Amino acid sequence: MITFSKAFHAALSVSLVFVLVLAGCSSNKETNAGTTEGTNGSPNADTASFVLGEQPLEFSFYGHYDWYTMPPWGEDLSTKWIKDNKKVNVVPISSGGSAKQKLNTMIVSQELPDVIWMERDADVEKLRSEGLLVPFDDYLDKYPNLKRWAGEATLDMLRSPDGKLYQFPNWYTTQPNGNAGYLVNKKIYEELGSPSLETTDDLYAYLTQVKAKYPDVVPLEVGQSASGIDVLVSAFAENRPYTYNAMKAVPTGDQLGSIFTDAAFRESIQYASKLYREKLISQDSFTQKLEQVEQKVMTGKIAVFAASSPTEFGAKGNALLKADDPDAGYIMVWPVHKAGLDKNKIFPGDYKQLGWNVSVITKAAKDPEAVFAFLDWFTGPEGQRIIMWGPEGLYWEGTDAEEAPQFTEKFTSDIEGREALMAATVNFQWNGNTVYVDDSKMKFESTLPAEKRSWETYWQSEITWKTQYDTTEFVNLDPAGDTDEGIVAQSIFDIYEKARAKAIMNAASDEEVASILDKAEADAQKAGYEKLLKYKTTKWQENVSKLK
Amino acid sequence: MKLSFGDKTFVTVNYLLLFLLGFTAFYPFWNAAVISFNAGTDTMLGGITFWPRVFSLDNYEVVFKDKRLIDGFVISVLRTVVGTVLSIAATAIFAYGMTKRNLIGKKFYMIFCVLTMYFSGGLIPSYLLIRELDLMNSFWVMVIPGIISVWNMIIFRTFFMGIPGGLEESAQIDGSSNWGILFRIIFPLSGPVIATLSLFTAVYHWNDWFSPSLYISNIDLLPIQTKLQQILNSNIMLEQMSQMDSAAQGRMSSMRAVTTKSLSMATMMVATVPILCVYPFVQKYFVKGVLIGSLKE
Amino acid sequence: MLQTNIRKSQHVFKQPGLTKRFMKQWDIQLMVIPALLFIFVFSYIPMYGVLMAFQDYSIFKGFMNSPWVGFKHFEMFFHAPEFWTVMRNTLVISLLKLGVGFPAPIILALMLNEINNRIFKRIVQTISYLPHFLSWVIVSGFVVSMLSTDNGSLNILLESLHLIKEPINFLSLPEYFWAILVTTGVWKEIGFASIVYLAAIAGINPHLYEAASIDGASKVRQIFSITIPSILPVIVVFSILAIGNLLNAGFEDILLLAGNPVLRDVSDVIDTYVYRVGIQNSRFSYATAAGLFKAVISVGLLAGANYLARRSGNSLW
């Protein structure tokens, strides 16, 4: 053992020397990099605008997701058109399946990509506060699309604490969108006499009936990790989207309160627990993989499917089932509610004006203004038309007064080709313009006879878009993971997950559900929940004042 | 030779158990292969077991048309061959040196090596080192850092020590140098272990997707397994989704929907079958009595 | 500290004859020293990273500018409410994996060795190593669908044999989890791990068997008196290494098979906990502290195992 520790000491001290040497080198580098960046970082507002297509533009793009692979630029119709006509080339940087580590190493070595496409979370703020991002404020008026389509309120919400804008949003919107809700198996529903499915009691009665008559059908499918049960919470209170569950905080007045003591949450878990006990919910809910859910929906082995985005499987399943039997397929129903509540104030899903995620331009970009000019063009009508529906002349020809594309005959006849194009370009939709795209689609759909309309768009316009709640004021409430509040947040998350699963699967009565949730509340308080709620309340109130 | 009753039962039970193991090990692979030959839209319905329901080569067509996957395949092959040859040669020489009883510093050397199996400075220092060595975004970053494997050295050493010492001694008396003994006696007698560790090293190189994902940003240089990993990851991305609003979830899942299960299985097959073919070549070194000739003293 | 170390090492080298002996065996040293230098560069130089455990490391500040905090992260780790659950699970799962997973490939190799039909042997060998090449994502997909309550093949089988009346929710019941995890792991790696033992068996002198069967030893007897003793050095070395690995109870397998949070009390091990709490939240220092704790214990275990193995003459050092 003596030699062992000697060896270890020797090794350690030698490596320490190396550290010092290495650290010396790298810190030198950092300061050098810092000074050079300072000069090219601030854009000069006096210079003329960058005109896309006049000069070539090339930048690197990194999608900060484990699953994201950017398809090769210029190999599909849309990006080829952009490459040829706008002289833009985008070089992909791969996350290689481990995005978090990849970004960390890029930060450490000061080798950031020009554009990072990422969640709108605490990481953006970290990059920003370290001065690694380029603000857009000087460009906003020169390149008008973002300002025009996103609106001042959305941009204000995106602004960082220093009052500047660093984030280019994706699928930002000023009108509701989203697909959360309830999918119903049409054939079973009609065979059971199309009973009323308005209240939670109706739903319970219906599911019991399904179980009795169709033993091999899952009465209520709740998806992977039983996430459909969160959608159900919306039935137990007005204006109560599932987002509050995800936030682990429920607004009451101008304070955020505990999720575990929230009446709607407790009732929804008791309801779900009853359904689970009586085998009205798939017993696999907490373990199944997505593909098993997909299978059940595709083969019509479910009666009701509650999910935050059931339309994707619903549309495919509807087409498959219809092909075999014209009476089969899926419909959607107006979100269920607890008896006594106003059904027009039930919101199973939500949307945020800021959309999904953002692109940020880093100081590594040689000409950040040019990159911004491209992103701005990309989110404008012309860019959106090209990336959504291909170059002009194929599926659309010319535009109307509102710049919406005039779809050609081919748009409805060549569905296969259109879907292939969509598959090739969907992963380039970095800064989608919800209002423009949705309005263009709807305008066209409304000219079609009912049977030709797309299933998805039909239900979106009939139900889902009307029942999604605006939760913009609740963005960015999460603390960074390495702060004190972040550590608490992780504990609360663990307590919540465990309590939720236990209450649904193991509780034998409503009282047991209540006691599991009470214990979770006690554990959460011990872990510092109060502090976290205070942090989130402050953040929320900041947002509220920004939105006013 | 007659077998006793006990021996007969033993042999029968043995065959039976191995057959069962073989079946359970084979089925998932076969099933994945079958799914890769099934039409993607039909696979969604589930229930595919031993044979494709709607036979289709479309998935393979997509895979083979993707220039990036093919490039990745070539990179993987190159990396595996170069990496294995270099690593086995260097590690075997190292291990032979470590078998010498009179090697000065032997104990220190061994502990020095073993510690690295447990203590590691983590990703960031390694990354900075690789960058200082100018190996970033180069093919060699997949080969060089793995040349010496402590684990393999220990196994080599254990096997080398099992070779009868008499052979070495007599060679020494004949005037052979240590290097001469290594190449003329040790290596020729170590067919099975060299074959085995070559296989392990080749499998490691073929399957390693993580280090390229960190050190290589250039998509054209990524091996096929890193690309496969990203495809398989699209199944796990749902975890992060539950925190998002429903509108964003819809956008995200439409991006994922592009890759069907059949297509990922076809990619997996292309990324896996080549390395499977190495084993049968290794097996021929396992034939009993391969060493008899030389062992007769 | 550095000074004293140098002096100490000089002192060692001044032992009479050492330099001379060293020069005499330069050819052997030449086999070893380049490899050691290599290990020094690629493993020891980056090892300064362990210092992160004593800092509040921030990737923006770097090693030089991150504040030093002493043992703060170790204390947090030891005082985390999950610590003892996590330690218990880690040890139980790894001991189960060791107890079942370590002998299994040896037994498989012995069984394969007794097969005379060469074609059958080769086919089984090749097939048994296939699962090693399936990623855990795919394997867990199979396990989940096989154990599913709706149409899972195991439940269907048990029901048709009238062993159970209602499907069992295998992956949601804590009592089944360890068994499922260990079985799946053994199944996945058994074939691949047996290869090295097959290689060891291939080196046994066949005359030993001939002599034994002339003496009338049964097949089972031959296994115990010839095969196992011959491959013992390999078994011992692997068991030392396996004991050193006791704190690595698994990661991806647990992450993917224990999807149900109800299982957390039996499934959470050091690596999954550190991943969830440390790495996903960019708490580098915390993760490093946990890693360093693991490394220290592991080296202790390894040294202990090595000490015990010394009697058999097959120790590492």
Question: How would you describe the overall organization of this protein?
Answer:
The complex is a heterotrimer of chains A (548), B (297) and C (317). Chain A is an alpha/beta fold. Chain A has 2 domains: 49-177 and 355-462, Periplasmic binding protein-like II (D-Maltodextrin-Binding Protein, domain 2), CATH 3.40.190.10; 181-347 and 477-548, Periplasmic binding protein-like II (D-Maltodextrin-Binding Protein, domain 2, 3-Layer(aba) Sandwich). Chain A is 49% helix and 11% strand. In chain A, helix 10 packs across helix 20. The longest helix of chain B is centred in the N-terminal third of the chain and has 33 residues, at 67-99. Chain B has a domain at 66-233: MetI-like fold (Orthogonal Bundle). Chain B is globular, with a radius of gyration of 25 Å. Chain B contains 17 helices and no strands. Chain B has helices at 5-36, 40-43, 58-65, 67-99, 106-115, 123-132, 150-161, 165-173, 178-189, 191-207, 210-215, 224-233, 238-241, 246-256, 261-276, 278-283, 292-295. Chain C has 317 residues and is mainly α. Chain C has helices spanning 2-13, 18-24, 26-44, 62-65, 72-79, 83-101, 103-113, 118-128, 136-146, 153-160, 174-202, 207-214, 219-244, 252-257, 264-267, 270-279, 284-309. At the B-C interface, helix 1, helix 4, helix 5, helix 6 and helix 7 of B face helix 2, helix 3, helix 7, helix 8 and helix 9 of C.
Kindly summarize this structure in a few lines.
By secondary structure, chain A is α/β, with parallel strands linked by helices. Chain A has 21 helices and 15 strands.
List the helices and strands and how they pair.
The complex is a heterotrimer of chains A (548), B (297) and C (317).
Chain A: H1 2-41, E1 57-63, H2 77-86, E2 88-93, H3 99-108, E3 115-118, H4 122-129, H5 145-158, E4 167-169, E5 181-185, H6 186-191, H7 200-213, E6 218-221, H8 228-232, H9 243-247, E7 250-252, E8 255-257, H10 263-277, H11 290-298, E9 302-307, H12 311-324, E10 330-333, E11 349-351, E12 358-361, H13 368-379, H14 381-389, E13 396-399, E14 405-407, H15 409-413, H16 415-425, H17 434-445, H18 455-462, E15 468-470, H19 484-505, H20 510-527, H21 529-547
Parallel strand pairs in A: 1-2, 1-3, 6-9, 11-15
Antiparallel strand pairs in A: 3-12, 4-12, 5-9, 5-10, 7-8, 13-14
Chain B: H1 5-36, H2 40-43, H3 58-65, H4 67-99, H5 106-115, H6 123-132, H7 150-161, H8 165-173, H9 178-189, H10 191-207, H11 210-215, H12 224-233, H13 238-241, H14 246-256, H15 261-276, H16 278-283, H17 292-295
Chain C: H1 2-13, H2 18-24, H3 26-44, H4 62-65, H5 72-79, H6 83-101, H7 103-113, H8 118-128, H9 136-146, H10 153-160, H11 174-202, H12 207-214, H13 219-244, H14 252-257, H15 264-267, H16 270-279, H17 284-309
Helix pairs in contact in C: 5-17, 6-11, 7-11, 8-11, 13-17, 16-17
